[in-house]
Amino acid sequence: MSSNICTSNARADQLDKSDGAKKTHFKTIDANEVAARVAYRLNEVMAIYPITPSSPMAGWCDQWSSEGKLNLWETIPARTSTWPPLK
Asked: Which is deepest, 10, 30, 41, 84, by most CB within 10 Å?
């Protein structure tokens, strides 16, 4: 049995790097950020309509787009805003 196999009582991030195992990193995020990440990666256009409580989602998509972060199709989603609302 190889020494780099993770058993049920051992965490993957505790394994020795010399065995070739990857170190696992975890990050706690809220549901708005999860939805924003999925939407950003799967869409060509991000329509931003900042309303509470989903306002952080628009902010993250806007930030990633301005940073040049690519989606799954290796393009930067276009941004459009519906703020201020039309009269």
From this structure: 41
